[in-house]
Amino acid sequence: MKQSLNLKLSQKLSSQQILVMRLLQLPTQGFEQRLLEEMNENPALEGSLDESEIYEKDEFDNNDDNYDDYDDTDNIDTDDINIDEYLSDDEIPDYKTQTNNYSEDDEERESPLASYISFHQDLINQLNTFVLSDFDRQIAEFLVGSIDDAGYLRRSLTDIVDDLAFTQAIYTDEKTIERILHIIHQLDPIGVGAANLQECLLLQLKHKTPTEIVELSIHILENQFDAFTKKHYEKLVKELEISQETLKNVYHEIEKLNPKPGSAYTVSGKITEHIVPDFIIRIVDNELELTLNSRNAPPLYVSKDYQEMLRTYRSSNDKSRAQKDAVQFIKQKLDSAKWFIEAIKQRQETLLFTMSAIMEFQKEYFFDGDDSKLKPMILKDIADIVGLDLSTISRVANSKYVDTPYGTKLLKEFFSEAMKNNDGEDVTTFEIKRLIQEIIDEEDKRKPVSDEQIMVILKEKGFQMARRTIAKYRETMDIPVARLRKEM
Questions:
Q1: Closest CA to 338 of 38, 12, 26, 33
Q2: Which helix H or strand E contains 290, and what residues bound it?
Q3: Tens-digit pLDDT profile for residues 159-198
Q4: In angstroms, what CA-CA distances link 14 with 37, 72, 77?
Q5: Are 244 and 233 in contact (CB under 8 A)?
Q6: Interhelix angle 429-441/451-460, nearest 10 degrees
Q7: What is the CATH number of domain 418-485?
């Protein structure tokens, strides 16, 4: 073992740089929440003062002789800064959880809150309408807890029996599980607790009023499920000795069923999320005009009261230790407020600078809204134009929306890879997807075109693409394979 002296040069982010990064990636609503948190935590930061009351840096310069006894808070040693902790929003000041900041005369008002019963809790509530023994109820509640959000119980009876024994110390058999499952199958929505799609559809059909079509639908699902899902119409017509019109009625009857009985409940329980655009683009006098949402540019100032405290301390002849500690606290809050205001300004400038480059790059699209006018554009293209790092451009594009004359668009939608056609022109993936959609919309639904046929049609239009690439695009567009698009 020996001691040695090494010289190392490394780059570390300052606390202000970290703050700018954190603010940059926030959308408008998230930024407003972060702003409120900062104003609650830092009493030196205010948002309703006049411009004449803005904090003057020179007036409270840290080099003033009266403050020589204190450390310079502008220069922070970042060696001790934990970036993950700095970016975390988990720390909540104690005063935020207290409710004693009201006078005795204030009326106690309660804000109405939206309350939702979960899907599984609703099933438990329905179980309470059945007369069950304590033993059966424990098993029933365990089964309900094992149902996924789509409404399926995708576990074998053997696994359930084992889990009950190991995790709940409940010893039973498969026959008991089947008996209790029969009770769960009676709960709303009908079809919940099914092991697979076939059982789910059958449960719903058996709860319908028996008719000739319903009975035939049950027979087909029980005995010809594979042929039914693969839409082998000719095989079904021949083996069942029915007409195509009858088979069409069967398909219409089954199409009215819900393949995911749990999803309808969970979707209705979600709170609607409102989109707030971060940028606004308008066409004024045949020119594009870009503005930043005013909610991203709040009027923030440093507290005049805190500045007055510093002036009072400066003019005081008798400076006690308590006063020195107080002024040190005040200076830290003032500097923190100043940093936050500067970080917001940098955020605004970066957002506008980057969005201006995107708007100029996609100028043709923003003038008429035609998706075919979108140019291939990747993060590196914008990074090269504005001279910023790729990570910065990624933060700007993340979760940001722009309000255009053609609707509110997600900023990421304007970024796409490029491919060349036979003429050597760059074409976006949006254009390829549009062509695929047009081909599928114009196909004969009795004989849908396969991915290989789409590949041939695109080749005739001047696009050389592999079949697997077309399949990938089709899947991202949520378009099923040709066999499942077949109609009678």
A1: 38
A2: strand 287-292
A3: 888 888 888 888 888 888 889 888 888 888 888 888 888 8
A4: 21, 15, 8
A5: yes
A6: 110
A7: 1.10.10.60
Percentage helix, strand, coil, to 5, in the chain?
55, 5, 40
User: Residue 426's pLDDT is what?
Assistant: 60
What is each CA distance from 329 to 19, 36, 397, in whole angstroms?
Answer: 21, 21, 38
Q: Which residues on adjacent β-strands are paired with residue 280?
A: 291, 403
3-class secondary-structure state, position 109: coil
For the record, the structure tokens of 227 come out as: 């042929």
Give the whole-angstrom CA distance, residue 188 versus residue 154: 18
- Looking at every residue in the chain, the average pLDDT score rounds to 76
State the maximum Cα–Cα separation within the chain, in Å, rounded to a whole number. Answer: 108
List the beta bridge partners of residue 194.
152
Residues 371 and 434 sit within 8 Å (Cβ to Cβ) = yes
Which among 206, 231, 233, 232 is positioned nearest to 217, based on CA atoms? 206
State how far the Cα of 209 lies from the Cα of 272, in Å rounded to an integer: 36
Q: How many CB atoms lie within 10 A of CB 170?
A: 15
pLDDT in tens, 20-61: 788 888 888 888 888 888 888 888 777 753 433 334 433 334
Where in the chain are the domains? 27-75+273-370, 119-267, 418-485
The type of residue at 207 is H
CB 117 within 8 A of CB 130: no
Using alpha carbons, list the distances in angstroms from residue 408 to 220, 289, 295, 434, 456.
46, 15, 17, 20, 35
Give alpha helix (H) positions in 362-370: 363-368
CA distance 408 to 391: 24
d(CA 213, CA 219): 10
> How far apart are the two ends of the chain, measured CA to CA in Å?
83
- Pairing mode of beta strands 279-284, 401-404: parallel
Q: What is the predicted pLDDT for the residue at 41? A: 83
Provide the residue type at 269 as one letter: G
Handedness of CA 318, 320, 326, 327 (dihedral sign): positive
Query: Does residue 194 sit in helix, strand or coil?
Result: strand
Whether the Cβ atoms of residue 483 and residue 233 lie closer than 8 Å to each other: no
Confidence of residue 338 (pLDDT cuts 50, 70, 90): confident
Burial of 44 per CB tally in 10 Å (0-12, 13-18, 19+): buried
Of the candidates 359, 374, 469, 481, the one whose C-alpha atom is nearest the C-alpha of residue 430 is 374
Q: How far does CA 363 lie from the centroid of its chain?
A: 28
Beta-strand ranges (E) seen in 85-243 are: none
Tell me the C-alpha distance between 468 and 478, whole Å: 15
Distance CA 183, CA 137 (A): 11
User: How many other C-beta atoms lie within 10 A of the C-beta of residue 35?
Assistant: 20
Q: Is the pLDDT of residue 279 over 70?
A: yes
What distance in Å separates the CA atoms of residue 312 and residue 322, rounded to the nearest whole number?
A: 14
